[in-house]
């Protein structure tokens, strides 16, 4: 019985949906024939083996069984068998309002899914549909195109001429497709006039006419001299306001006995790069360039000496104003810092960002989304 039933089911399934009605009729007629012979146990065993493992449907077992007893002629069959017959066969068409529940008997696993049929399709009988397709993984948000130019990082700079010349670090503008200067709420493109890669200095030119400019000191710093660092550490993540740190000169050489640099305990953080280091007179004594980053090390920061800057500027025909002779009040010094220090933003391609991030000695302050 089981083998015969399996052959009937499988043969009709493989023959396609066109024979769905024949499948239903043959299946039902076969059971009626066996029942007329009193072979109720065969009918039960055949139904159970065909549908064993089927997932429960929405309708309750009790309601299905009551309906089965009321409508069926199967007087002697076990209640489970009656439920299976009426619930799994007849109810596919008569009781579920066009909703078809299908198992693929040819699979080892039980694949059951729901498919809503149109009324005209219900008349044709039960249809064994195709195996459901696997759900495709959710598409991830597309990443920016490698050639797309995006805001990548930031730095600081300062005006040294009324014609809009700005001093910053070379590493701040290195690799940038465009360097933008934030000035009075606007972003203005800057032109790169000259760079000193060895000493990490760059001269930019804009069409901005600043209200104030920094003069450059004629003397390099001395040990324990008071200094002020200004700029935009951490970009505008903390706030868009300019920030300052006070400290003293702690060494007259930089890392690796670099005497074009000096060391200070005035804080220099990512985003400070290229910003001014000045004395109380408002004269530039250095350019913020780097910090010593190591666990357990604090207060070791470096600036480029004013003499190094002047040598580079003279080589590129950039003249500075005469340094101040008198100390400024904190209020006046704060005004000078606010008017003559600028926020710089580097725009570059995504491909170049990834390339520079992979470089071991890269100093650029990339925005957090690229770290």
TrEMBL record:
InterPro entries xref list: Chloro_Bact_Ser_Proteases, Peptidase_S1_PA, Peptidase_S1C
UniProt xrefs under Pfam families: Trypsin_2
Gene3D superfamilies: 2.40.10.120
Region (Disordered), start-end ranges: 128-152
Keywords assigned: Hydrolase, Protease, Signal
GO molecular function: serine-type endopeptidase activity
One GO-annotated biological process of the protein: proteolysis
Secreted is among the record's keywords: no
Origin superkingdom: Bacteria
Annotated signal peptide: 1-20
Name this protein carries in UniProt: Trypsin-like serine protease
Phylogenetic placement of the source organism: Bacteria, Pseudomonadati, Pseudomonadota, Alphaproteobacteria, Candidatus Pelagibacterales
């Amino acid at each position: 019985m089981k083998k015969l039933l399996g052959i009937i089911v499988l043969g009709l399934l493989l023959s396609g949906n066109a024979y769905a009605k024949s499948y239903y009729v043959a299946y039902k007629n076969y059971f009626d024939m066996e029942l007329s012979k009193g072979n109720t146990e065969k009918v039960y065993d055949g139904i159970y083996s065909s549908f064993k493992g089927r997932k429960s449907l929405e309708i309750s077992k009790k309601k299905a069984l009551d309906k089965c007893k009321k409508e069926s002629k199967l007087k002697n069959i076990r209640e489970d068998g009656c439920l299976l017959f009426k619930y799994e066969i007849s109810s596919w068409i008569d009781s579920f309002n066009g909703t078809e529940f299908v198992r693929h008997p040819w699979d080892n696993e039980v694949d059951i899914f729901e498919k809503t049929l149109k009324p005209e399709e219900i008349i044709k009988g039960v249809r064994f549909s195709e195996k459901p397709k696997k759900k495709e993984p959710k598409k991830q948000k597309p990443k920016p195109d490698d050639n797309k130019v995006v805001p990548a990082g930031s730095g600081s700079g300062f005006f040294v001429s009324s014609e809009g010349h700005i001093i910053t670090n070379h590493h701040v503008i290195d690799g940038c497709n465009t360097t933008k200067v934030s000035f009075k709420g606007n972003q203005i493109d800057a032109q790169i006039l000259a760079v000193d890669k060895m000493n990490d200095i760059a001269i930019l030119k804009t069409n901005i006419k600043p209200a104030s400019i920094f003069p450059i000191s004629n003397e390099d710093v001395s040990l324990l001299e008071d200094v002020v660092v200004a700029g935009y550490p951490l970009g505008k993540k903390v706030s868009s306001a300019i920030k300052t740190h006070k400290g003293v000169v702690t060494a007259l050489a930089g890392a690796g006995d670099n005497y074009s640099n000096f060391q200070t305990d005035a804080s220099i953080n990512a985003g400070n790069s290229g910003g001014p280091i000045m004395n109380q007179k408002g004269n530039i004594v250095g350019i913020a360039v780097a910090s010593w980053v190591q666990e357990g090390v604090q207060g070791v920061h470096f600036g480029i000496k004013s003499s190094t800057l002047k040598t580079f500027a003279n080589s590129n025909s950039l003249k500075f104003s005469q340094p101040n002779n008198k100390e400024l009040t904190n209020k006046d010094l704060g005004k000078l810092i606010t008017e003559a220090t600028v926020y710089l933003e580097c725009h570059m391609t995504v491909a170049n960002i990834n390339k520079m991030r992979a470089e071991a000695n890269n100093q650029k302050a990339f925005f957090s989304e690229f770290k």
